[in-house]
Amino acid sequence: MMRHLIGKYQIGDGCKPFIIAEVGSNWTTLDDCIQSISSAKLCGADAVKFQAFNYDALYGPGLMPLVEGHNPSLPLAWLPKLKDWADTCDIEFMCSAFSPELVEAVNPYVNVHKVASAELSHVRILEKLRDLGKPVILSTGSRGPAEIESALRVLAPVPVILMYCVAAYPAKSNDTLGVELLRQKFNHLVGFSDHSIDYLTTPFQAVATHKACVLEKHVNFVEAKGPDSDHSLNPGEFKAMILKIQGKFEPRIGPTHEEHPMIIRHNRRLLAICDIAVGDTLQEGVNFGIYRSLKDDPQALDPFVFNHISPFAINQVTGKTAMRAVKAGDTIKPGQCI
Question: How far is CA 103 from CA 201, 250, 304, 313, 329, in A?
Answer without folding.
Answer: 34, 41, 52, 64, 57
